[in-house]
Amino acid sequence: MKPSLTDIFRIDPASRLSNLRIFKLVITLFLSSAFASTIIIICNSNLVFDFGFDGFNFGLFTVFRVPLAIIAAMLPILGLIAAVHRSSQTSLQIQKASEQNTFSNYYKHRQEYIDHFNEIKNVFPMHIKNELNDKNVRIFYSLTYPANSPRWFSIEHRLGWIDGIDRALIRLSIIIENMPQCENISILSCLYREFLRSEVSIRQGLFKISTPDEVWPNLVGEKIIKIVYWDGSNFDLKVWNHGAAPLVARITDYADLITHIKSAANSFMGTMLFGSSVYSSLSLLKISSPGGTLHTRYCTGILKSIYETNDPIEVSEEDNRFFISKMSDIENRYQNEVERIER
Q1: Which of 111, 217, 224, 265 is close enough to 157 for a disulfide, judged by CB 3.0 to 4.6 Å?
Q2: Separation in Å, CA 229 to CA 11, 85, 197, 312, 328
Q3: How do residues 241-254 score in pLDDT, each as one tens digit?
Q4: Which DSSP string corresponds to 128-185?
Q5: Backbone dihedral region of 266: left (phi > 0), alpha (psi from -120 to 50 degrees) or beta?
């Protein structure tokens, strides 16, 4: 294939100087011109060979001045090509060194991030500790440093991916805070279902869990209660005889994890939940026993009515309208709380 003009003039730093097309071309053109002019001079001049002092001076500086000048002109051009080639090689070496540093810094930074969570994961309860494997932590890293790769490295973090989860914890807290106020078991079961649905969303957002069944806490005393709606639809609701104490604990567990994720990115803002009035009221529900076990007043009442029922719980159309109104109030309070925190 015939080389293009660009190929001829391109100086490849990975090639030897003597292999460059432009280097070969300059030598060929100038030497050919010098040789041709020499032949022309010899053929068109009556030259007498004189091997003495005068003969060499006359021949080199007078007769063959043009061929020698052509060769002399070639040398600085070759020197310029050699200088550009050395500069290109230096730039290539700097680029490769930079790429190697980027590659090394990326994997070292990511490994330190993983090691950090391996060191602290024992402070979390089992439902989070079991999910803090290297795969999920690498996902945290990729989401926190989305621009980083083996080809690019920066310590600039982006925590926008976790903001939605952070806000969802406030919403989750408001839902569970409203549950003790529901004396109607139908509405209570709807709120409880919304709580579980929201937690599934939070947990899937954090750990990329593929199925909702992987979200549920591994607790004994599980029971399935059927919820039957006025329109004929139904839903199987999971409930545990531990009441809602583990649910309250899981909210703060997620908040602690978010705080650690932000801290690992050198962001010391903490979770929004810890700065909200919702968390203050949530904290009032906690009572620590001498043994350190977490209990809440929910244990004695909030889900007891649901757990102890053996019949399907029926949700009428009126119950559903009340539930929708309740959720509207929850959403309004949630929006107001988020706006207050973000101001």
Answers
A1: 265
A2: 77, 79, 17, 10, 20
A3: 766 667 777 888 88
A4: HHTT-SHHHHHHHHHHHSTT-BTTB-------HHHHHHHHHHHHHHHHHHHGGG---H
A5: left
State how far the Cα of 320 lies from the Cα of 210, in Å rounded to an integer. Answer: 30
Instruction: Report the sign of the C-alpha dihedral through residues 200, 217, 284, 123, in that order.
Output: negative
> Any idea what the Cα angle at residue 48 is, between residues 45 and 50, rounded to 5°?
135
pTM: 0.69
List the chain domain ranges: 5-99, 160-342
DSSP secondary structure letters along 38-50:
HHHHHHTS-----
Average pLDDT over residues 166-192: 86
Per-residue pLDDT at 298: 43
pLDDT digits 0-9 by tens, 296-333: 444 445 677 888 888 899 999 999 999 999 999 999 98
Report the distance separating Cα 72 and Cα 32, nearest Å.
13
Residue 251, Cβ density class (10 Å: 0-12 exposed, 13-18 middle, ≥19 buried) = buried
For residue 38 the two structure tokens come to: 């020499």
d(CA 45, CA 37): 12
Q: Exposed/middle/buried for 288, CB within 10 Å: 0-12, 13-18, 19+?
A: exposed
Rounded to 5°, the CA angle 287-292-296 comes to 25
Decide the pairing of beta strands 286-288 and 294-296.
antiparallel
C-alpha span between 82 and 57 (Å, rounded): 32
CA distances from 325 to 15, 195, 315, 318, 331 (A): 75, 16, 15, 11, 10
